[in-house]
């Protein structure tokens, strides 16, 4: 495991390269600690693992991480790039596969847990499958507009038939500079809704500097378009299994959804809540599926507030259920 430190946005960031659950793959992982810790909590806070959505990268969580409140802001935090996205895509560029399996993402989450010997972490993002595969890995899960579905909601596993995959393949993926990239993105409604910090981090850390055949320089997406598209299309059984398995999870789950989400319509998000044995739900007004990129403060408040309720004292699960 190699590491290099830097300081960004009040956070001490240490970059690591760790093995993935598949030996030939590597994962780019960041650890975060506040540069100026808040007053020490009365008890130790758990580590927090952030798992990003398709098409993004670990640094996209930094606006949320930097806004967590006491005592959770003192936690050691981890965010890693999915094996075919962000810096991991660059590390694995010669062995990227044509298909994506969501179980690989879950196995890689568990690999990060094992590499850093994390005990009873909090999972933020895509954590259901990992907890199902190894119960007791997490002490709580915060699901940010989760992308898991009942089997009756059919999603094509063909790139040709999947609308999100097709949109991804049509997107622009090269620019002359990051300045041109930002100017172009700010003309689009999709990106204009993002918090400025999130957009800047996406452009800074989600792009790769390249030299073109004519000798000119430019940037391109670290995650190749085809990899993002195949992740949309290759649902496999993982996202269906994680929906069915929500009822088996024996820890608190807090679902945060966007009122305008194009993934979780009202009936679906209520179905997900109903499957949680110890669940709670907050629907944020005026935001869509990418709510953590649009409203990082509100997202951080939801994480901190939930952990205040769920982990502030050691209570039995039946008591916790009543409190949530």
From TrEMBL:
Transmembrane segments: none annotated. InterPro entries: AB_hydrolase_1, AB_hydrolase_fold, Carboxylesterase_BioH. It comes from the Eukaryota. Residues 48-301 form the AB hydrolase-1 domain. Coiled coil: none annotated. This is AB hydrolase-1 domain-containing protein. It comes from Linnemannia hyalina.
């Amino acid at each position: 495991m190699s590491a290099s430190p830097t300081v960004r946005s009040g956070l001490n960031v240490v970059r690591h390269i760790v093995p993935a659950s598949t030996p030939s793959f590597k994962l780019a992982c960041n650890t975060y600690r506040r540069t100026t810790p808040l007053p020490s909590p009365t008890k130790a806070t758990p580590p927090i693992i952030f798992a990003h959505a398709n098409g993004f990268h670990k640094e996209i969580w930094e606006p949320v991480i930097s806004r967590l409140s006491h005592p959770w802001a003192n936690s050691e935090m981890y965010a890693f790039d999915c094996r075919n996205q962000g810096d991991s895509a660059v590390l694995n560029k010669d062995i990227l596969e044509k298909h994506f399996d969501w179980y690989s993402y879950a196995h890689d989450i568990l690999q990060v847990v094992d590499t850093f010997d994390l005990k009873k972490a909090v999972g933020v993002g895509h954590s259901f499958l990992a907890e199902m595969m190894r119960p007791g890995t997490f002490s709580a899960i915060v699901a940010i507009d989760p992308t898991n579905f009942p089997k009756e909601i059919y999603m094509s596993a063909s790139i040709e038939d999947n609308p999100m995959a097709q949109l991804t393949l049509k997107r622009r993926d090269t620019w002359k500079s990051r300045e041109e990239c930002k100017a172009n993105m700010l003309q689009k409604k999709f990106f204009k809704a993002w918090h400025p910090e999130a957009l800047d981090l996406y452009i800074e850390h989600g792009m790769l500097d390249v030299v073109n055949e004519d000798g000119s320089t430019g940037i391109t997406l670290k995650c190749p378009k085809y990899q993002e598209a195949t992740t949309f299309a290759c649902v496999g059984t993982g996202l269906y299994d994680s929906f069915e398995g929500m009822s088996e999870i024996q820890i608190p789950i807090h679902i945060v959804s966007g009122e305008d989400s194009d993934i979780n319509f009202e009936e679906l998000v209520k179905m997900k809540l109903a499957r949680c044995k110890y669940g709670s739900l907050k629907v944020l007004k005026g935001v869509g599926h990418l709510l953590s990129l649009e409203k990082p403060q509100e997202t951080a408040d939801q994480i901190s507030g939930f952990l205040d309720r769920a982990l502030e004292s050691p209570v039995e699960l039946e008591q916790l259920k009543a409190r949530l």
